Structure formats: C-alpha cells, structure tokens
C-alpha cells in the first residue's frame, strides 16, 4: 500500500513540473513581456528617405526592388485610427516623408504617431501610386507598383519599433503656401495650408451594383457615374465624405437624379441599381495666391473614415470663413491632394479647431 | 451498486409460473455463475428481502449452488453479491413450490468503463454555429450498448444518428435535459462516476418506469445515497488524452439499521494531456447525500452535488493549418505569455444541483414519489474580444498561405512570395505567428492611452455566461396489480430562467473597455446612439458605459421557460406476452426578456414612442411592421404537445424475445431554436411550430447460457425541425445567424450486439454493429441575420440544396477538360441526386472483440473497430441559390457540384485493448488496476467532426463563389488510461 502512495505522490510531483499545470495550480500567468524597442545602435547607418525616393527616379520612374542593405529611420506622422488613412502610415525624416504600405488595419495600436521607426528596406520595393512614392512589397501580380507587406512575418522582418520621440524631436507641420504646394519635397510630409476657402465643388465616382452588371458590360464602363462636372455645384453634399448610409440617403432624396451615366441614362432612372457603399468623395477648397486649376486643393477623405458624414462647418460652406488644414501633402497624377489624418487637422484662421474631438 | 439484469431469468420465471401449483410456501434454488463462461461462483452472498427488510440470507456452495426453502408466497428482491462481480438483484415470485432459477449470472465488475462527459475533449464550437454536445451511451447489459458505450465514444458516435437532445437523461426520476437547448447535461456531474454509477437504461422507443422518454432511450441515474455502493473506494487515474490525473474518493454507508444512509464522493481532475496543447483541467466535484427510511413506508432523501472548475478548450482549424503544423491536434486557442502557455478559451463552471426526494410505499405493489430539484450557479466560457484592432487569432484566414496563393487564378490570389512567408511562419512554428501572441496584446493595451491618460483596452477576455436557475417538481406513481397489469405515471412542472450575458473577464493590462458595438460603429459612426450596447445608459449619462473587470456588457437577457408534462404508461403482462401503452401530454411556453436596450434595435420607449437620438430615429420595424425590440418581453409562443408509444413483446422459452415499439411525438421547439438572434432582439424564427417524430423499431433478443444477442431494425422520421446556428463571421466581426425551419430527417438502420461464450473458459466473443442511413429529406427555409445590423440577409428563403444536390452527366474530353452533357433542349442531364446526410457520426460502426477473464480476476480485451460513412456538418448558406449560382446568378453544373456537395470522411480502422486485475485481501480489501489503450495503430488522420465556414470568396471572373476551407476535429492518436483503485 505504501508503495502505491509513493508512486502516486511521485507522479503528482512530476506532473507539477509540467507546463500544463501552470493554470491548474495557480490559476495565474506570469507578467507579460515588454515589447522590444530598437535603438539606432541596432542598425548603424541610415539611408535618407529622399535617397530612397531617388532610387525610383534613377530607375527611370519605375518600381525599384531594393536589393542592397538599406535602413530608413523615420518618425511616424499619421494614424489610421479614424480610418481616412488605411492599412499604412507615413514616416518622415529630415529629407522627406514616405508611405509604408504595411497592410493591416488598426495599425495605430502598434505604431504610434511620434514613434521612431526603422524600416529595413532590403528586399522591399519603392514604387509609385499615381505619383505618390511608397515603400511596400513587390507586387507579383503587376497590378500595382508596390503591394502591402501584409503578413506579420514580413512586417516584423522589415519594420522595427523605436522609442517615442522626445517632445523637441517631434515632427512639426511645415506651413506652405502658394506654389510651394507643388514642390516635390513636401510630398508625404506633414504640412499646414492656411486660408483655404470652400469652392463648392466635389468629385465622386459611383457604381452600379457590380453583382447586377454582366461581365461583358463591365469593361464598357457604362456602369459608372461621375459627380464632378459642374463647378459651384456640390450636389447637396456638405459632408467631408459619405458613409454607406449617408450615400443611400442622398440617392433616396433624389440629390443625384440628374447625374448622367456614361451611356446617357440618368441616375434617376437607375436608382434601384446603385450600390450604396462608403464612397470616397472629395471636397475642393481654393488656396490663396493661386489661380486657375492650380488653386484647387482636393481634400482626400474616405467614406470609411469615422468622420465621413460630419458636415463641413456652416460658415465655411457659406464662404464666410476659411480653413487652415494640417495633414499630409499627397498627389493623384498631376493633381495635388491633401490627406486629412483626422478632423483635428481642420482649424479656423485663428488656429483654434473647428471640431471638438 | 445495484444493477438490474438477467433478462433470461425473467424469461424463465415467466414460463415457469404458468405451471405453478397453489401452496402457501415455496422456495428458490439455482446456481450462481459468472455470466461470461458460466463458471460457478462460490461463497456468493444471497439476501432475500421484502420491502427493504431482510427475510433470509444464504451463501452459495463450492459449486455455486444455493437452495432457500420455506418462504411465504410473495414477491422478493434477491440480492447477490460476490467479490469482483457487480451486485445483482433479481425479483423472485414465490408461488407455492421451489422455483429453479437454473443460473443466476453475475457480471464481472467493469473497471474500464468510465464514461462521462470528460471522456470528450471540449471542442470549441461556440463561434461555429454548430453543436457538439456529446451523446453518451451508458454501459448496460444490452450487448450493443455494452460495447458502444465506451468503445464508440472516441469517434463521437451518435446512437442511431440522433442528436444529444433526443437522449433523455433522468436523475432520481427527474428529466435533466437542458431546458433551453435540450442537451443532455452530463457535465453537471462529471467526475462523480461513483455516486452516479447506479443507473437504468432503456434503448430506443422503449417505455421506462420512471419517465416517458423519447425515441433515443432513457437513462435514469439513481443518485440517491442508498444506491451508492457501500464502503470506501479510492482511485487514481491517469490518461494521456484528456487530463493527467484524476483522484477520487467515495464513501457510502449503505442502509444502516436506524434507517439512515449517507454517501459522499469527491474528485479532482487536473492537468493537460499528450495530444492537445492548451487544454487543461482544473476540475473538482463533490457529491453528498443523506437518506432516511421511516418504517417500511416512507423514505426521504436529500442530495447535493456540483462539478466546479475550469477547463481549457480545443479549437478546430483548417487542414491547411494542420498540415503546416504537421499536427491535426493543433489548437489555435492558446499562446505564450512570457513563455508560459495560456488558453483564451476556458470553460468555467459551478452549477450546484440539489434534490429532495420523498418516496412512499404504502403497499407491496404501490410506490409513489415526489421530488424537488433545483439547479443554479454559473456557466461561463471565455473568449477573445477586441475593438478596432487586428484579429488576434493565429489561424485567421489572412495569416495563411492560401490567402496569398491559390493555383486557380480565378481566386485572385497570386502572391507566391507572401504565401511562402506565411508558410515559413507556420512551418517553423514561430510562436508569435503560430499561436496567440499574449505579450503583444498586453503591449497594445499598455500603450493605448486616451485623451485623459487612461488606457483603453483593445483586446480583452470576455466571459460568455449562461447562468441557469432551474426548478422542477416531479411526482410519479407506480402500481402493479397482483396480476397482469402495471400502471406508472407522473407529472412534472418545470420553471427555468437562464440569464445570458457577457462579463468582462480580463482587461489584459488596460484600464477600461467601452460598452459599444464596434461593427455598428463602423457603419453608423455618425450616429452614436446606434452603436450603444446599452442605449438607456447612454441616454441617461450622455456617454457609453465604461467597463471594468467583472462588468456585464454586450448583451443581457433572460430565457424563460415554463414546461408542464403529464404522462402515464400501462402495461399488460400475460404469460410471455407483454404490451405497453404510454401517453404524454404537455404544455410549454417560453419567452425572451431583454434586460438592456441595444442601440440598433431599441423598439419603442415606455410611452410607446419611437426612440430618437439627436435628429436620428433609431426605431426600426420588421416586415410585419412591428418595431424590432431588444428590451423587455418578447411574444410568448406556447405549444400543446402530446405523444404516444406502443410496445409489444413476446418471450419464448429458452431466452428468446421479440419486441416492437412504435411512437409518435409532437414536441415543442426549444428556446435556443426559436429566436433569430437571441443576443440582440426579441424576434422569433418565422414558421415556428412543433417538431413531429414518428419512430418504430423491431427487435429480437436472445440471452441464455452466456449468449446475449440483440438485433434491431429501426426507422424514424423527424419533421418540421427548427434550428438556429450562429457563426462568428470575421468579415463582419460579429455573429451571423441562420434560423432554419422545416428540416426533415429520416433515420433508419439496423443495430446488432452479440456476446458469445467461446469454448475456452472465460473467453468470449463480442461484437457490435450499427449500420444506418440518416438523411435529410426536405427543403428547409432559412432566415439569415447579422447581430449588429437590422438587415435581413435571407428572409425565409428556401435552401434548395440542403437535402441533396444533382450530379450531372459528364465526360472528360481529349484535352482533359470536363464536359457536361446536355440533352436535345440544351439542358444538363442529371445523372443522380446525391443525398445529404446527418453529420458528425459514423453511419456505419462495427466492433469485434475478444474478452478473456480468468477466475483470478485478470481480464484482457482486444477490439478491432471499423467506422465509415461519416459526414461534415453543412452550412445552409452554401446550399442556397445565391451561393451556388454565384454573383452572376447563372447556374452551372460545376458550381452546383462544388458548392452544394457534402464532405464524406474517410473510413477508419482502429484497434483498442485493455487489461486489468483485481486482488482481494481477506475478502475485505480489494485492490486493482485497469489499463486501456486506444488507437494502438496510432492513426492520427481520423476526423470526428467539424464544420463548414460561412463565408464566400469572390472570384476574379465574378461568375462564381468559392468556399472558405472547412474546419475539422481529429481523434487523438495512441492514448492510454490507467486506473488504480482501492476499495474496502
């Protein structure tokens, strides 16, 4: 009998040593490990962002696969928290700013505005999206010049988190005006543009429900419509962008009825076919000191942004007051755009915010 | 323990009694034998008693023979006890002569068979929409059940293909099936094997004395202290498939001279296993009971028990993941926290049950009982919850190579390099990618500062609670007329109120979490009222509720059930002929009572006005024009139910018996089947109606001379079933619900059980076969909703490919392409209709074994098993026209055969063995061991179940959809269980 007890006791002691008994005996877990924070010393020499952009130009403005060892050190200047910037962030150093195409949502949880970041560009690609240079993964499908890194194993191999920047190291927006807006060096960086006046003009591409359109018709583009034709006409849209429900409301109200599709049929006749979805709709502002088409600042805002349906302030819509924008200077083909990070980047002329966040 | 056995003795008694001659005294004689092999048992203790009072004791001689004479005529209970054998009780009617019982067979104590719900790994099915409530057969003297009870449990065999709900489980005569779901609640007493050992079972449609039962048998666990085996028993068990260690102690006093009996049983099940990481047990169990007999007539007992504890659950993954990990037992629920394994899915339960039972026996042939049962406590299941942050689950589809690369370009997944990276992360088993990354989750929360410097958690652990309060009052009566007739009947009142809610279990390093619906927030960001999980709180305070650890959130509602039943059975017994008629009637009602007002479904306010937040009207209406409501009482559907059973049987001389049963049931749907989205609203499933079942079986049984054979043919048709499946849809970050109605099934097949003694003493051949066809036979309807949207995706739409799908005539042309043939009109030619089967059980199960027992209490068993015709659970969404025809709405044979098909699992052969030995010391102490080795060939490719995911993949051509990969559960490879016990 004694032997049996000894065996049982010995077995119990042995089991207690097993990993699986951690929650069994204590019900508790050890304190989690702090995340790894990298420092300059882990990398050595850094390549300026401007040099990486130059690689693209030196390659005949074609996507360039970076094969030699190349590490950028930059500070994160954007957040995807409100959803206008999505699946990526911009980093900036003394020489410029560039978008890193990470490819996950909710990035602001792991990558904070004001955090130093080290991007090991080795085996990554620098490419352009309609004129904006980006760092991403090689797009094997050839659809775009770069692809998202997307998988954590790829991201962790190339993107390393550093410390939060000290207050005096924080990137501050540069105020630019007039033709400065067309200077390449500001692309992808944090800028402030003062005195912008609402121009009562919008741009939107809408679609017929793609599930209803026959394959043969998809190529003919009849299924699209544009709301951009008239200056001084915002189609009743007074919000920064449009969520699915707001878009539907506009369609139901008949606001877009008179718009004509590529095949000449009006939206009014095709209302039931329109697919409500969150639309990227851009409002236009006029910048002081510029004229003609160059005066327009297209404010890029996504229908997925949390503030998509927020209205532009009444006095701004009326043209009585102007807006001082802070955000990232971007471009789409030849047109300069301006990407809002969130509505805290929309301020009055006196520098006070239009919106209480 | 007492085990009612020996049908062949009953048969003998019946036949002999016909020739009885009249006298006031008689007797009884016979030989006590080991049923397997008929070796005589010497020194067996026999006790004859009447109404619990011992009349006379006797002992069998060296040849096992006994003779008891000069007994007054009457009915006696004869209890036979012998070390190493199960106690047996035989009813003896003394009728004026010395009745020869010939053989009184005893069954060697089954030390291996330890069946309870802890034999089943707790598969994590909560987010899948499917159920995995095990149906557990108990060992009995039925030759089929005897094998199937333990031998088929690993493959998750479902008796005759029936679900767990159809299996009636009674405790002390009270039906214990869950009031909300109907499941048999074995988990309530798992770990209390000793206290719950004494039980009676019936098979199929048979009527029992203690309850009406359904079409899938009745098990009644006596659970009273006087039924627990007298004495002390200690056991230590270790096994490699579930938990490392089980320790158990039991004591029962038996009935003392003063009429008291008491018993207790405690156990602990601890540790993990060799096969599935992250699964662990920290389970305890207790049972305490006391019973007092007053004179010969009254008996009152009080029992309380519970099985408190925690157990880590296992999750299903896709084959792609299993292949990359090289392990079909991979479990995605756990990850490392600072190097230690932590499981995110833990079942935490503490559900005490208390029973007060009164039995009155005013005369020999009349017994009545009244019992009160109360079940309460908590049942929780933890899970990850997250807000506006990447999906933390390692096997989230975007983390897999298949998300980046599919050979078919129509998937639009042609990123080979990324696929290679993903594959590398898995195949190298890099902990951050192949498992949950707890350290990262904590770091996210630690750094998630809001404007005022508080940390808002992005990842938390929620606990989904199902807290029951169940009260049942039950009365029963049994009257046996001196001749021919027996009547049994009873009444049950049941009241159940179960609260469903979520509780914040762990903030994972953050300070708070918010009570909002994040998916609603994505769609209705500009309407803060709509995103509230608790709109009333928001309206009162102007902000969403801030949650701390332990707070309720998400949803909170009561499921209320009232159930009343009355039943009676009448048996007529004449000679070898016996007829049974049983009837049951019931009244059932249930309703949902929402305790919080959800912003998406606010309904009307207390004054009947629409709810307006800001300038937005939040109140929405259903198709009938009624407001969709989350708070307050739902409609109260009520059902009158009734059913009838008829059984006929005839005993022939020599141990042959033929019997047949027929039954019709008209059952109410359960609460869990009746609401389209119970977490969020009061809306009932359309077309709610009772489920009708017709069932019949015919049986032949032979038991004599150690032979025991049963052959059964059964046929069951189940009609108008409703079902509610709720899947976690990661594209919506919410649950999507499929409420189905009008599901018909047909189950038919044969069942065979044999025990044949072989010429070598102690050696017998055993076999079991269950071969059936369990199919769907109707085109059901389905309503699909999403928890965080008022939109109805499918509104009472047909599911045309549910019961079958057409297979078309085709050939392969010279270039290897498949060409579908058409007739003169250009229509595709249907070759056959492929039936769809009731899933998750082998429809063919066979076992053949040898059992060898020596008179020195060694036993050896070896079983070969074959299982086939097992199918995967179907997702109704894949059987709709929408999914089959694709986005272009154009039907093609390729799409039908791809989308509607049901997966059939590969057949499997398994080999199991067991060995054991008992030692007796001074005939008082009993020490022994048993060892059971399952799956000796270490087959790691045996699918036991799984489910189809609910999502569709768009194609590049926009002509068709593709499926997401199915998820599977596998059986463990080679595993053992060793049990040591000591008894006195």
How would you sum up this structure, described in words?
The complex is a heterodimer of chains A (357) and B (984). Helix content of chain A is 16%, strand content 27%. Chain A has 8 helices and 18 strands. Chain B has 984 residues and is mainly beta. Chain B has a 28-stranded antiparallel beta sheet that branches. Chain B is globular. At the A-B interface, helix 1, helix 2, helix 4 and helix 6 of A face strand 21, helix 5, helix 7 and helix 8 of B.
Secondary structure: elements and pairs:
The complex is a heterodimer of chains A (357) and B (984).
Chain A: H1 2-16, H2 22-25, H3 49-58, E1 64-65, E2 71-76, E3 89-93, E4 96-100, E5 115-120, E6 125-129, E7 132-138, E8 146-147, H4 152-158, E9 159-164, E10 174-176, E11 190-203, E12 205-207, H5 215-218, E13 224-226, H6 244-253, H7 267-270, E14 282-286, E15 296-300, H8 314-317, E16 323-332, E17 335-340, E18 346-347
Parallel strand pairs in A: 4-7, 10-11, 15-17
Antiparallel strand pairs in A: 1-6, 2-3, 2-5, 3-4, 5-9, 6-7, 7-8, 11-14, 11-16, 12-13, 14-15, 16-17, 16-18
Chain B: E1 3-4, H1 7-17, E2 25-34, E3 45-50, E4 53-59, E5 65-72, E6 74-81, E7 88-94, E8 98-106, H2 143-151, E9 168-171, E10 174-175, E11 199-202, E12 218-221, E13 231-239, E14 245-252, E15 260-271, E16 281-294, E17 298-306, E18 309-312, E19 317-318, H3 319-325, E20 334-337, E21 340-343, E22 346-350, E23 353-363, E24 366-375, E25 378-386, H4 401-404, H5 416-427, H6 431-434, E26 436-437, H7 438-446, E27 459-480, E28 485-506, E29 513-514, H8 518-523, H9 535-541, E30 546-547, E31 552-574, E32 577-594, E33 612-613, E34 616-617, E35 632-633, E36 638-652, E37 656-667, E38 691-704, E39 707-729, E40 734-757, E41 763-776, E42 781-786, E43 792-798, E44 804-808, E45 810-812, E46 818-820, E47 830-835, E48 844-853, E49 858-868, H10 881-885, H11 893-899, E50 908-921, E51 925-934, E52 943-947, E53 952-954, E54 961-963, E55 967-970, E56 975-983
Parallel strand pairs in B: 1-7, 2-8, 9-12, 20-26
Antiparallel strand pairs in B: 2-5, 3-4, 3-6, 6-7, 9-10, 11-12, 13-14, 13-56, 14-15, 15-16, 16-17, 16-18, 17-23, 18-22, 19-55, 20-21, 22-25, 23-24, 24-27, 25-27, 27-28, 28-31, 29-30, 31-32, 32-35, 32-36, 33-34, 36-37, 37-38, 38-39, 39-40, 40-41, 40-42, 41-48, 42-43, 44-47, 45-46, 48-49, 49-50, 50-51, ...
């Amino acid at each position: 009998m004694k032997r049996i007890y000894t065996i049982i006791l010995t077995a119990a002691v042995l089991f207690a040593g097993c990993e699986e008994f951690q929650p069994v005996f204590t019900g508790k877990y050890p304190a989690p490990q702090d995340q790894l924070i990298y420092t300059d010393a882990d990398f050595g020499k850094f390549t300026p962002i401007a040099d990486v952009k130059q690689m693209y130009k030196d390659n005949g403005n074609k996507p360039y696969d970076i094969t030699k060892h190349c590490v950028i050190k930059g500070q994160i200047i954007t957040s995807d928290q409100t959803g206008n910037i999505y699946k990526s962030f911009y980093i900036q150093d003394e020489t410029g700013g560039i978008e890193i195409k990470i490819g996950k949502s909710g990035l602001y949880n792991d990558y904070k505005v004001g955090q130093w970041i080290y991007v090991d560009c080795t085996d990554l690609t620098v490419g352009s999206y309609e004129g904006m240079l980006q760092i991403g993964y090689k797009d094997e499908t050839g659809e775009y010049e770069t692809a998202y890194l997307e998988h954590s194993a790829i991201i962790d191999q190339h993107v390393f988190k550093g410390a939060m920047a000290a207050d005096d190291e924080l990137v501050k927006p540069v105020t630019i005006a007039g033709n400065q807006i067309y200077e390449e060096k500001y692309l992808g960086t944090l800028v402030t543009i003062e005195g912008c006046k609402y121009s009562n003009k919008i741009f939107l591409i809408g679609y017929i429900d793609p599930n209803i359109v026959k394959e043969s018709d998809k190529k003919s583009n009849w299924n699209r419509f544009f709301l951009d034709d008239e200056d001084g006409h915002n189609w009743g849209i007074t919000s920064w962008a449009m969520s699915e429900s707001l878009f539907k409301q506009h369609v139901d109200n008949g606001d877009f009825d008179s718009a004509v599709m590529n095949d000449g049929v009006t939206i009014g006749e095709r209302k039931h076919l329109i697919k409500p979805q969150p639309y990227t709709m851009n409002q236009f502002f006029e910048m002081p000191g510029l004229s003609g088409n160059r005066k327009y600042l297209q404010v890029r805002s996504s229908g997925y942004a949390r503030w998509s349906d927020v209205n532009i302030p009444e006095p701004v819509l009326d043209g009585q007051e102007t807006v001082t924008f802070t955000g990232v200077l971007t471009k789409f083909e030849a047109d300069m755009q301006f990407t809002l990070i969130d509505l805290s980047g929309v301020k009055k002329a006196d520098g006070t915010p239009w919106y209480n966040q | 323990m007492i085990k009612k056995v020996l049908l062949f003795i009953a048969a003998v008694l019946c036949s002999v009694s016909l020739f009885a001659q009249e006298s006031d005294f008689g007797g009884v004689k016979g030989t006590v034998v080991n049923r397997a092999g008929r070796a005589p048992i010497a020194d067996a203790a026999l006790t004859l008693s009447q109404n619990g009072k011992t009349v006379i004791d006797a002992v069998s001689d060296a040849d096992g023979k006994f003779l008891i004479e000069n007994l007054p005529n009457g009915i006696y209970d004869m209890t036979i006890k012998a070390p190493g054998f199960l106690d047996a009780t035989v009813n003896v009617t003394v009728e004026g002569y010395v009745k020869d019982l010939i053989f009184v067979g005893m069954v060697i104590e089954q030390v291996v068979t330890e069946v309870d719900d802890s034999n089943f790994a707790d598969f994590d099915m909560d987010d899948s929409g499917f159920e995995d409530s095990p149906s557990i057969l108990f060992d009995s003297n039925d030759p089929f059940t005897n094998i199937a009870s333990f031998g088929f449990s690993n493959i998750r065999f479902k008796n005759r293909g029936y679900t767990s709900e159809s299996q009636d489980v009674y405790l002390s005569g009270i039906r214990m099936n869950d009031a909300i779901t109907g499941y048999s609640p074995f988990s309530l007493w798992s770990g209390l094997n000793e206290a719950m050992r004494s039980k009676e079972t019936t098979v199929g449609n048979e009527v029992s004395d203690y309850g009406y039962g359904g079409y899938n048998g009745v098990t009644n666990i006596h659970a009273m202290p006087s039924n627990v085996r007298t004495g002390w028993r200690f056991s230590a068990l270790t096994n490699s498939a579930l938990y490392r260690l089980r320790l158990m102690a039991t004591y029962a006093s038996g009935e003392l001279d003063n009429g008291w009996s008491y018993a207790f049983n405690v156990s602990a099940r601890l540790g993990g296993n060799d096969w599935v990481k992250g699964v662990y047990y920290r389970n305890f169990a207790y049972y305490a009971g006391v019973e007092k007999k007053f004179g010969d007539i009254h008996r009152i007992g009080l029992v309380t028990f519970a099985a408190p504890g925690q157990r880590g659950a296992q999750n299903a993954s896709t084959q792609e993941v299993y292949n990359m990990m090289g392990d079909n037992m991979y479990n995605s629920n756990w990850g490392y926290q600072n190097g230690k394994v932590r499981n995110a899915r833990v079942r935490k339960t503490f559900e005490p049950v208390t029973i007060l039972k009164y039995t009155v026996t005013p005369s020999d042939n009349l017994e009545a009982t009244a019992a009160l049962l109360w079940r309460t406590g908590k049942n929780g299941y933890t899970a990850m919850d997250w807000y506006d942050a990447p999906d933390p689950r390692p096997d989230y589809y975007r983390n897999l190579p298949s998300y980046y690369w599919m050979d078919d370009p129509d998937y639009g997944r042609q990123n080979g390099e990324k696929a290679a990276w993903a594959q590398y992360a898995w195949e190298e088993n890099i902990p951050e990618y192949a498992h949950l990354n707890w350290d990262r989750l904590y770091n996210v929360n630690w750094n998630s500062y809001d404007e005022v410097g508080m940390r808002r958690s992005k990842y938390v652990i929620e606990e989904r609670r199902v807290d029951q309060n169940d009260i049942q009052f039950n009365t029963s009566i049994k009257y046996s007329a001196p001749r021919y007739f027996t009547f049994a009947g009873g009444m049950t009142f049941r009241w159940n109120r179960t609260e469903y809610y979520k509780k914040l279990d762990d903030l994972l390093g953050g300070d708070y979490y918010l009570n909002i619906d994040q998916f609603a927030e994505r769609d209705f960001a500009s309407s803060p009222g709509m995103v509230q999980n608790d709109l009333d709180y928001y309206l009162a305070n102007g902000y969403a509720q801030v949650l701390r650890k332990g707070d309720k959130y998400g949803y909170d509602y009561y499921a209320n059930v009232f159930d009343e039943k009355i039943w009676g059975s009448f048996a007529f017994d004449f000679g070898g002929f016996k007829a049974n008629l049983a009837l049951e009637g019931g009244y059932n009602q249930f309703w949902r009572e929402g305790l919080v007002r959800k912003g998406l479904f606010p309904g009307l306010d207390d004054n009947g006005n629409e709810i307006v937040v800001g300038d937005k009207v939040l109140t929405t209406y259903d198709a009938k024009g009624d407001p969709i409501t989350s708070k307050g009482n739902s409609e109260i559907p009520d059902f009158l139910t009734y059913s009838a059973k008829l059984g006929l049987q005839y005993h022939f001389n020599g141990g042959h018996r033929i019997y047949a049963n027929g039954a019709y049931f008209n059952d109410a749907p359960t609460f869990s089947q009746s609401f389209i989205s119970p977490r969020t609203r009061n809306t009932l499933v359309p077309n709610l109606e009772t489920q009708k079942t017709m069932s019949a079986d015919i049986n032949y049984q032979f038991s004599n001379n150690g032979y025991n054979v049963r052959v059964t043919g059964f046929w069951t048709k189940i009609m108008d079933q409703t079902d509610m499946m709720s899947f976690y849809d990661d594209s919506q970050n919410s649950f999507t619900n499929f409420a189905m109605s009008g599901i018909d099934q047909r189950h038919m097949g044969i069942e065979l059980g044999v025990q044949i003694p072989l010429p070598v003493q102690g050696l017998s051949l055993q076999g079991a076969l269950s071969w059936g066809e369990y199919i769907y036979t109707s085109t059901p309807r389905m309503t699909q909703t999403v928890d965080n949207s008022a939109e109805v995706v499918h509104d009472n739409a047909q599911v045309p490919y549910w019961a079958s799908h057409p297979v078309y005539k085709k050939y392969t042309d010279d270039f290897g392409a498949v060409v579908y043939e058409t007739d003169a009109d250009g229509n595709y030619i249907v070759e056959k209709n492929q039936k769809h089967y009731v899933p998750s059980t082998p429809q063919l199960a066979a076992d053949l074994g040898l059992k060898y027992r020596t008179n020195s209490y060694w036993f050896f068993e070896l079983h070969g098993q074959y299982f086939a015709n097992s199918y995967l659970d179907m997702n109704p969404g894949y059987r709709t026209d929408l999914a089959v025809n694709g986005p272009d709405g154009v039907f093609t044979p390729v799409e039908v055969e791809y989308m509607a098909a049901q997966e059939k699992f590969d057949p499997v052969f398994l080999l199991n063995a067991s060995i054991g030995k008992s030692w007796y010391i001074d005939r008082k102490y009993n020490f022994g061991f048993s060892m059971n080795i399952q799956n000796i060939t270490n087959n790691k490719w045996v699918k036991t179940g799984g489910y189809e995911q609910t999502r569709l993949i768009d194609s590049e051509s926009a002509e068709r959809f593709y499926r997401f990969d199915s998820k599977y559960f596998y059986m463990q490879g080679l595993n053992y269980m060793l049990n040591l016990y000591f008894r006195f």
